[in-house]
Amino acid sequence: MWKTVVRRFLIMIPQLFVLSLLIFIMAKNMPGDPFTGKITPETDPARIEELRELNGLNDPWYEQYARWVGNAFQGEFGNSYTYKVKVSTLIGERAMNTFWLSLLTAVMLYAIAVPLGVLAGRFHNSWFDRGVVLYSFISYAIPTFVLALILLYFFGYKLQWFPTTGSVDVREVPGSAGYYISKIYHMILPAFTSAVLGTVAIIQYLRTEVVDAKSMDYVRTARAKGVPANKVYSKHIFRNSLLPVAAFIGFTITGLLGGSIFIETIFAYPGMGQLFISSIASRDYSVITALVMLYGFLALLGSLLSDIIMSIVDPRIRIE
Amino acid sequence: MKKQRWALLTMLLALMFVLAACGGDKKEGTDKNTDTGKTDGGTTTGEEAKEEQGDSFSLSVENEGTAIEGGTLMVALQKSEPFQGIFSWVLYEDAYDGELMSFTTNSIFKTDGDFLITDEGIASMDVKQAEAEGEPNIVTIKIREGVKWSDGEPLKIEDIMLPYEIIAHKDYTGVRYDEELRNIIGVEEYHNGTADTISGLKKIDETTLEIHLKKVSPALASGGDGLWTYAEPSHVIGDIPVAELVESDAVRKNPVTLGAFKIDRIVPGESVQYTANEHYWKGKPKLDGVIVKVVPPASIAKALEAGEYDLALSFGSAQYPEIEALTNIDVLARPELYYSYLGFKLGKWDSEKKEVATDLENSKMGDVSLRQAMGYALNVEEVTEVFYDGLRERANAILPPVFTSFHDASLEGYTYDPEKAKQLLEDAGFKDVDGDGIREDKEGKPLEIKLATMAGDDVAEQIAAFWLQNWKEVGLNVVFTDGRTIEFNSFYDKVQADDPNIDVFMGAWGVGSNPSPSGVYAHNAQYNFSRYTSDSLKQTLSNIDSKEAFDATYRAEQFAAFEKEIHDVAPIIPMMYRLELSPVNKRVKNYSIDYANPTELQDIELTADAPIK
After folding, report:
1. Which chain A residue's Cα is nearest to B177?
2. In DSSP terms, which residues pair with B137 in a beta bridge?
3. How far apart are the first and last CA of chain A?
4. Structural domain of residue A163, as residue ranges?
5. How far, in Å, CA of B387 to CA of A317, rounded?
6. Above 0.90 for ipTM, yes or no?
7. In angstroms, what separates the C-alpha of B55 from chain A's closest C-alpha?
8. Is A309 part of a structural domain of the chain?
9. Do the Cβ atoms of A157 and B177 come within 8 Å?
10. For B440, which DSSP code?
11. How far from B214 is each of B130, B132, B137, B193, B217, CA to CA, in Å?
12. Which of A272, B232, B295, B368 might form a disulfide with B76, Cβ 3.0–4.6 angstroms?
């Protein structure tokens, strides 16, 4: 298996290379550049032209691309035109926020979806099952920003149980226990929102699998042998039903790492999704290309992760 | 059967949720939409709005109650994305960073209601004009003794010189190294590396600096002509190489400042905590501190209602209807340094000569009556009332009313007068030859005018459609360039490149504290997007910035001449001014946003432990 993993990583290099070429050409073809937004009657157009020249924006795209590839190989993705810091520093800051939020989201996501899915399947056609189906339809149909706003208004402003903006309270001293508690406290509402929105697929898969498994021969055999119903569900059915869920667990995790523009905007939580959209709007080329490369890598990694997890959960599957 | 019923119920429930969430906004949107269709209906709503609001906004507020000792002022910064966090006046580029720095400001001058420098700040200024050709003009800056930085170090004259040395440095990559700064003698030599110091900056003694300038104009009094109005702490950043400055902790994490508050802690992109600066030269502020947090537009009204904040900065007028009725909030307003305009392409930019080449004869919009008619045809009055809740007003001239000494309120401008527009077109020969309700050009050929306008929110799209309707009513066929509104970056790319698909465009300018219009209307200004100039306009603009114009009456006369020419020739037609809103919680004892007499930060007091709900 390890051989395959290494090979998959090697294939990623040409894939990412093609991606970088595409995104570079497309980014350069967008109208405007990082300095277009800087014009006011007070700025000197000659200075802006000078800055374009200084940043090499007037060179042909292939020269800029060659320069970019050369730097990228040394792990240098340039400076953000907007934030004026190294792209790696900027993305690092945001990625940490997004990473912790994604982790909590993933935990909540599976904590909600797995029990609901399994129980709905087990008590098929009961009132509970119907409740779960209704819930998943609503959570699937409701737009992200609507749910986020409802939860924010209700739990944030009406009941005032949770903080309404940001990732941490500025009054807490970094490094103290209160600082970390405040961080988690700030994450609960946004994480819960995106968790609720992501549950539908997992619930539906699990429910169908469990319903199907109930009539399988091995279940009947186990029951005939006298294995208690609870044990049949927890040992036999559960593991088999998890297969389709495991198939996209890798994608789910790397997808969450991409950040969510709606959640981040509404909760004023500085993360990756926000950064991506605003860097496109301000034509912050160095950030756009670095982020697309990162997203591309995450997507490839996600599919690899899913394959590996599948092979662990289902011994019949071998990665060759 | 059963399944079907469930599906229906689910859909209904989902629909209810969505409607509940955005019901209020939606309804308003549709109401406005219908108004634009029928002129009559729209006017009624407009009048109602006027009655409701009138001139009810004030510049300041005083609330009852005894002040508490200390307290923390909670401030919301309305912004839909994280702030950039470049806390340096020489390096920052985003206006929001400017807002955050306003609590710690390093500004050395105090200005009056016309943004002119007075003697009441940390520094005062004296100007000695050159008496003969070849002599320098000398500006003398004197700083008060006993002024200290927030870390207790005294303010030195080197701190006043340092910003010039940073901006003019060859490694400086900001926008501020420009023609204006090169007005200081020796800046260019220093930038090119042929001199180690800027020869035009002369330290006279520990509190006096002389700056030698090539030319002086009235702009100097509002901080122009190359003058820099902020100090930089040389004992902190003097040794940091200029190229590394923007990433340094002295700029990003713990800047040393001169203002009433100092930055205590920053959560990158989302919030800043300030504490009172005990070394502040006007005495320690009454508050213990300030906390500023970024709040997205979607929830700012709720946040104000819930009493989370005392003040809101950069508050968007689109949110105004949501907070209008709140009882725990007063809304102050002042005119903004801004105008939007309708521009006509009347020539091209000559990149060889670096000046505009006006060509009225070959421009589609070359006929002055056509331009004026387009101005009279626009019902700006209705748009300001119906779409902007009276938070904008029709612009009667280029200079916004905030420049009280130069803005002439008596000017008529282009009021809504479709009959006059029709008459102008008729007299100029733009007649409807084939009887389809659309006028043809003077030769009787079809006339299609292409309008470039910026894409924005729903309201912006509706307004753009409304303008087209206005023009259609006087018989002009105006269509969007490329068939739609244009995204911001594209818009300026096209307008700047004199795209042949643009005949008319709608833009806006923020105006600096120096009212001189040269940057946007001079013959050699790249931002002169309408590409119009004339001998008389050149003369007037140079008069406005001449030495004679140090006499305010003369300058006001020249401004009037400028406004008259722009009005008569109409290369651009001013459209709207904007009000800047400032919601204030009832807990704040005293607050004023009057440019002439603003509340100083150290004087703000609170009357309760938490903002009032």
Report:
1. A47
2. B213
3. 7
4. 87-270
5. 62
6. no
7. 30
8. no
9. no
10. B
11. 9, 12, 6, 20, 10
12. B295
Count of alpha carbons within 13 angstroms of residue A227, beta-carbon side: 15
Q: Is the residue at A117 inside a domain?
A: yes
Domain presence at residue A53 = no
Query: CB atoms < 10 A from the CB of A181, how many?
Result: 13
Which tokens sit at B15? 């629909």
| Separation in Å, CA B464 to CA A304, B16, B364, B376 | 49, 32, 21, 16
Whether A216 is in a domain gets the answer yes
Interface of A with B in 125-164 (CB under 8 A): 130, 133-134, 137-138, 141-143, 145-146, 149-150, 152-153, 156-157, 160, 164
Strands B60-62 and B590-592: antiparallel
Please report, for the domain that includes residue A131, its CATH number: 1.10.3720.10
Q: CB count, 10 Å around CB of A91?
A: 21
pLDDT digits over B114-172, tens only? 888 999 999 999 988 888 888 889 999 999 999 999 999 999 999 999 999 999 999 99
pLDDT of B431 higher than 50: yes
- Residue closest to B365 by CA, chosen among B543, B505, B209: B505
Q: Do B84 and A82 touch (CB under 8 A)?
A: yes
| CB-based contact B406:B116 (threshold 8 Å) | no
Tally the C-alpha atoms within 13 A of residue B297's C-alpha that lie toward its C-beta: 11
Give the pLDDT confidence of B63-113 residue by residue, as tens digits. 888 889 999 999 999 998 889 899 999 999 888 999 999 999 999 999 888
CB pairs under 8 A between A and B: 173
**Distance, in angstroms, between B50 CA and closest chain A CA?**
32
**How many domains does chain A divide into?**
1
